[in-house]
Write a structure and sequence with these properties.
Layout lengths: L2 E3 L4 H9 L6 E2 L14 H16 L8 E11 L2 E3 L5 H11 L3 E12 L2 E13 L4 H9 L20 E5 L2 H5 L3 H10 L4 H10 L1
Parallel strand pairs: 1-2, 1-3
Antiparallel strand pairs: 3-4, 3-5, 5-6, 6-7
Length: 199
């Protein structure tokens, strides 16, 4: 089956392969990511993941499947996107220091006229950070292309004291939920993994 991942994220590519889906095409979506003000974080990621899936749908072969995802970080309901510069990254990380926040990922599966969109939320708690901690983390360069200015799969793990929920969701792809969604559309990841191992 033709599978398209509508994301250039290396983390999402890695996680999809880890799920047993080893053969897929990557077509990055250039969908507009602006949304109307006042929407909840959950609604935002669902809208944007669906928009990303629809933006690449024409590239799918007949019967092909498009997988799209969108991830945001929310603190007290306010969305923290990717920082534009080091100063903005510093402000974001300072705000997250010693506090709990939520990571939302919307996932959309699109095949022909069938579409499924869901979201996952994970609560992340940061340890108390000093200004030196934040400055040194920014100096790694890691925060600059990450929602909320950190990546849990990298040096950002040093900032995270606790998580509640799906760890992979914080990386940008809720593996368990996606697996259930794929099964609901006839693609069993464990069967694929078993078949790959038997080759």
């Amino acid at each position: 089956m033709d599978i398209i991942l509508a994301s250039g994220s290396p983390r999402r590519k890695q996680l999809l392969a880890q799920m047993g889906i080893e053969t897929f095409r990557v077509i990055s979506s250039d969908a507009d990511e602006t949304v109307e003000p006042g929407l909840s974080p959950a609604r935002i990621v669902e809208i944007l993941s669906a928009r990303k899936a629809e933006a690449v749908a024409d590239h799918a072969k007949p019967g092909g499947l498009v997988i799209a995802a969108d991830t945001i970080v929310a603190l007290d309901g306010a969305v923290l996107g990717k920082p534009n510069d080091g100063l903005e990254a510093f402000r974001m990380l300072s705000a997250l220091s010693g506090r709990r926040h939520q990571v939302y990922t919307g996932v959309t599966l699109l095949r022909g006229g069938e579409r499924r969109t869901e979201h996952e939320v994970t609560t992340v708690t940061f340890r108390e950070l000093t200004q030196d901690d934040i400055t040194r983390y920014i100096a790694t360069g890691e925060p600059m292309d990450k929602a909320g200015a950190y990546g849990i799969q990298g040096y950002g793990a040093l900032l995270v004291e606790r998580i509640e929920g799906d760890y992979f969701n914080v990386m940008g792809l809720p593996v368990c939920r996606l697996g259930r969604m794929l099964a609901g559309m006839g693609t069993d990841c464990l069967a694929l993994a078993a078949g790959n191992r038997g080759q």
